[in-house]
Amino acid sequence: MQVPLLDMKAPYEELKDELDAAYARFMTSGWYVLGTQTQAFEEAYAGYCQVEHCVGVSSGLDALHLALRACDVGPGDEVLVPSNTYIATWLAVTYAGATVVPVEPDPRTYNLDPARIESAITPRTKAIMAVHLYGLPADMDPIMEAAQRHGLVVIEDNAQAQGARYKGRRTGSLGHLAAHSFYPAKNLGAYGEAGAVTTNNAAWAEKVRVLRNYGSQRKYYNEHKGFNARLDELQAAFLRVKLGCLDAWNDRRRQRAEQYMEGLADCPEITLPCVPSWAQPVWHQFVIRHPARDALQQRLTEQGIGTLIHYPIPPHRSEAYSEMGCGPGSFPIAEALAATVLSLPMGPHLTADQAAFVVERIRA
Ligand SMILES: *Cc1c(COP(=O)(O)O)cnc(C)c1O
């Protein structure tokens, strides 16, 4: 049996008729960037996230970057970022000209540790990036309380958690702004590049709207030095179709996650994901930890089971951020995670039989 980490073709097979019809409508529409499909998707996704505004953009990284620009984060400002995240979270801060200040995660949830935020705040701190890593919401209430005490803006990086809930509320509605990625492998994936910013702040939504389109509201009148970060009509049309099954597909991920949790519960060497009582995760990745991770990964590969490491090198240890001078041990929790995490096959089209096979092979 072959079990891919994520089956990228099955979604099309399931939704072929609707996606083909969306494509045909798009091809004959005569309008290809920022039009009725984008507007309809923005309205639908704002409703889904329980927020007032959604602005479609060209990627998750652009969404993070424009969200920072919208609330005036720039040179001289410090932004708290998780030490344990995909590097895009950091790059967006760098794009905005601000300085990243890494904060270690809670070693149980792998998400930003609210208890460590206070000591990282300085008079220059302007914002906090809260990442819902692997589809598990960060503990937002204490993060928002700390932000309130210090007058900071909180931006959620919701690239991995479309549809997740924190104390019953959707991620993407919990911070002051949220950035979403619709990269094909995300829970809500397009067929190319796409992203969005959500917020309840009308002025910030408008600023993102202007910045994504060359800083201009009225054609050829440029109020800001903007960017080309527009959403394609074709991707918006595909996303409208796929948004319709996001909840059902997240439920299927939950069933497979339960299977893994039960099947691997008594394996002494394996650390399973921790799900706090207030979290309803969407299992973008199902991540275990194992002290002999590399050997385990190799054995699974040999048996046709696809796995991946999210992520092998924390941003502070990457060459890209070598100027920070963070040697080994500077952020030990992030480094320990990078050395031991392993993502198992997961997705809405992973079958019960496949998950059972993965469990059986790991136990063996
Ligand atoms: C995927 C991802 C991004 C970036 O999204 P793109 O659409 O690839 O630009 C940002 N943050 C996190 C946590 C991600 O997983």
Total domain count: 2
- Strand residue percentage: 15-25%
- The helix/strand class is alpha/beta
How much helicity do the residues have?
A: 25-40%
Strand order of the largest sheet: 1-9-8-5-4-2-3
Description of the structure:
The structure is a single chain. The protein is an alpha/beta fold and 364 residues long. The chain folds into two domains: 234 residues, Type I PLP-dependent aspartate aminotransferase-like (Major domain) (Aspartate Aminotransferase, domain 2); 118 residues, Alpha-Beta Complex (Aspartate Aminotransferase, domain 1), CATH 3.90.1150.10. A seven-stranded mixed β-sheet has the order 1-9-8-5-4-2-3, with helices on both faces. β2, α4 and β3 form a beta-alpha-beta unit. α2 runs parallel beside α7. The mean pLDDT is 97. The site of pyridoxal-5'-phosphate has 14 residues, from α3 and α4.
